[in-house]
Write a structure and sequence with these properties.
Layout (H helix, E strand, L loop, with lengths): L2 H5 L7 H25 L5 H13 L4 E2 H7 L7 H10 L3 E5 L7 E5 L1 H18 L7 H15 L1
Length: 149
C-alpha cells in the first residue's frame, strides 16, 4: 500500500520528504512484526542481536565495546542486555585475563540452542517479506546502504 494511503496524506512537498515518511512508517511497521516474534521466543530484538554477535565469534569472547559497536540499535544499554542474558543463562561474563580492565562475554550452550530456536522460526517471520522478489529485496537493501552513504 502506498504511504499516502497508509497515513492519509494527499501528497508530499517532494520525493525526499515522501521517502523519509516512508522509512519512518516502515521502520515502525517492521518493529510491530519483530517485537511479538521475539517476545514469543522469550527475547527482545536487542537481546537476539547480542546473542547473534556472540555466536558469530564463538568460541572466542567479545568485549562490551565490540558488542556495542556491532549492534543494530547502538543506543542499546549493553550492560543491561548482558545482565538479562546472564539471568537467562545465555551468556557468561568474565574479566579478560590479558587486560583486566576489559570484560569478556561468551555465549553459552543454552544461548546457542536459543538462537537455533530463533533460526528455526525465522521462515515464518520472513513470509511477511515475500511480496518482494529476491531481486527486489537485494535492490532495496542496496539502496538503503547507499542512502546511509
Amino acid at each position: 500500500m502506498r504511504i499516502e494511503d497508509e497515513i492519509h496524506q494527499k501528497e508530499f512537498k517532494d520525493d525526499y520528504r515522501r521517502l523519509m515518511a516512508n522509512l519512518l512508517f516502515t521502520n515502525n511497521w517492521l518493529n510491530q512484526q519483530l517485537i511479538p516474534f521475539f517476545k514469543g521466543l522469550g527475547l527482545t530484538l536487542q537481546q537476539q542481536n547480542v546473542l547473534a554477535i556472540l555466536r558469530g565469534q564463538h568460541p572466542s569472547p567479545v568485549c562490551f565495546g565490540d558488542i556495542q559497536n556491532r549492534m543494530v540499535d547502538r543506543n542499546s544499554n549493553v550492560t543491561r542486555l548482558i545482565d538479562k542474558l546472564i539471568e537467562k543463562g545465555y551468556v557468561t561474563r568474565d574479566i579478560c585475563q590479558t587486560n583486566r580492565r576489559m570484560i569478556d562475554v561468551r555465549i553459552t550452550e543454552s544461548g546457542l540452542k536459543k538462537l537455533q530456536e530463533v533460526d528455526d522460526k525465522f521462515p515464518t517471520l520472513f513470509e511477511r517479506f515475500h511480496n518482494l522478489s529476491q531481486e527486489e529485496a537485494v535492490l532495496a537493501s542496496n539502496l538503503l546502504d547507499k542512502l546511509r552513504g
